[in-house]
Specification:
The complex is a heterodimer of chains A (191) and B (184). Chain A is α+β, with helices and mostly antiparallel strands. Chain A has a single domain, classed as q2cbj1_9rhob like domain (Jelly Rolls, Sandwich), CATH 2.60.120. Chain A has helices spanning 26-37, 63-73, 75-85, and strands at residues 17-20, 42-45, 49-53, 92-93, 96-100, 105-109, 116-123, 136-141, 147-153, 159-164, 171-173, 182-190. In chain A, a hairpin with a 5-residue loop joins strand 8 (136-141) and strand 9. In chain A, helix 2 packs parallel to helix 3. Chain A starts with 16 loop residues before the first strand and ends with a strand. Chain B is of the alpha+beta class and 184 residues long. Chain B has one domain: Jelly Rolls. In chain B, 15% of the residues lie in helices and 35% in strands. Chain B has three helices and 13 strands. Chain B has helices spanning 11-21, 65-69, 71-81, and strands at 3-4, 28-31, 35-36, 47-51, 55-61, 86-95, 100-101, 112-118, 131-134, 141-143, 150-155, 160-163, 174-182. The longest helix of chain B has 11 residues, at 11-21. Chain B is globular, with a radius of gyration of 16 Å. Classes of the chains: A alpha+beta (191), B alpha+beta (184). Chain A binds chain B through residues 47-48, 103, 105, 107-110, 133, 139, 141, 144-147, 170, 174-175, 177, and chain B through 50-54, 98, 100-103, 126, 132, 162, 164-165, 167-169.
């Protein structure tokens, strides 16, 4: 079950984003982490990223994953997300789990793919600190493509980060600097 | 003044290099200790060049700008590739911790011969910073940093190249003269 009923105030700059702390209640959190730990992860690498990814969790039938998917993508919560971000109705979510280990990263990109309205990531690594890496860096870019780091969000345990996808939603996952496993469930709310 | 190492100029070697160049799915040759003596080069004036989501690096004038335009070097390229390269541009490019370029930065490129001379002083493979060349239908070509080596790669219109993200742990810079020659 979700621990929260509403979203905090959306920060508008440099693009609309929010951090929802303490998102799941402890029993659901334990169940979800156990289920995610039992999945297989494949190493994925390109010029843009390096990480380990699970299979697509959008449609699989697993008791704990079903609960997690409902907490993130159920109708009531989708409505609250749409109202808070002042976007059109959100019809569905997709979902996968990712693990970033030592040296992994995701370089700046804007997430724009047709149908994606709100990006989300639920963070499941206890006691992560800035020095370990893996922060969500948020950039403001001018028309020429020159960027400024505006915010660096440490992915606190059990926090849900969401932002509106647009041509200005430049962000990255900073390189993992220590031997940790940064576990997230990530996806998008679709229109 | 630096010159091409004498053993790359012998006739049988040139003929072998041309055969090797044309045998790869992505045609390339890589020549270690290419110049003799190894050029030290004055430190060029750099400017940071960034287009977020495409590249973030420092660029300046090529250290060996005149050499890359010289008839001696272009004739060497003709002999080792069988191509007729026409000089387009030469830059000195540096990638330090956190820098990168991405493949899609070259999406509008035409047929070209890309030449890279590696000025990197010392490097650890785990820092990344390697050059990556891709071509549809073929396996990618990865070229790790190798100080003093010259890499020449023929790229078709839809082929792409980039320099892989450099780790925040890197304590030196990947630095190269990168020269583009147009091909008909």
């Amino acid at each position: 079950m979700r621990n929260v009923d509403k979203l905090p105030r959306i920060k508008s700059q440099p693009f609309p984003h929010v951090v929802v702390k303490n998102f799941l209640d402890p029993p659901t959190l334990d169940l979800a982490i156990d289920a995610l730990a039992g999945l297989e992860y494949d190493f994925k690498e390109s010029d843009l990223f390096s990480y380990w990814a699970s299979i697509d969790l959008t449609d699989i039938n697993h008791p704990a994953i079903n609960i997690l998917r409902d907490d993130l993508g159920g109708e009531i919560w989708r409505k609250k997300v749409a109202e808070s971000f002042k976007v059109k109705q959100l019809s569905s979510i997709d979902m996968a789990a990712y693990v970033y280990g030592l040296g992994d990263f995701l370089l700046p990109h804007d997430d724009q793919v047709e149908g994606r309205i709100i990006a989300y990531s639920l963070h499941l690594t206890p006691e992560i600190t800035e020095k370990m890496g893996g922060s969500l860096n948020i950039f403001k870019a001018n028309d020429a493509g020159k960027s400024k780091l505006v915010d660096s969000i440490i992915p606190e345990y059990n926090s849900l980060i969401m932002f509106e996808v647009s041509d200005s939603s430049w962000h990255q996952v900073s390189e993992i600097m220590q031997d940790i496993q940064r576990l997230t469930v990530t996806g998008w709310y679709h229109g | 003044m630096a010159e091409i190492n004498f053993y790359y100029l012998e006739k049988p070697t040139l003929s072998n290099l041309k055969r090797i160049f044309n045998s790869g799915d992505i045609p390339f040759i890589r020549l270690s200790k290419f110049l003799d003596p190894v050029p030290i080069g004055s430190k060029p004036k750099f400017n940071r060049k960034e287009k977020i989501g495409y590249y973030n690096r420092q660029e300046g004038s090529a250290i060996l700008d005149d050499f890359w335009k010289s008839s001696e070097f272009i004739q060497f390229l003709e002999a080792t590739t069988g191509l007729k390269p026409k000089f387009r541009e030469a830059n000195h490019i540096c990638y330090s911790a956190g820098d990168y370029s991405l493949l899609h930065a070259e999406e509008s490129e035409s047929r070209r011969l890309t030449v890279t001379y590696d000025f990197t002083k010392s490097w650890k493979q785990e820092w990344g910073g390697y050059d990556l060349y891709t071509s549809p239908e073929n396996n990618p070509l990865i070229c790790n940093r190798d100080p003093g080596s010259l890499m020449a790669v023929k790229l078709e219109e839809k082929d792409l190249s980039c320099t892989r993200y450099v780790s925040q742990k890197a304590v030196s810079m990947a630095q190269v003269d990168r020269i583009i020659y147009d091909l008909d």
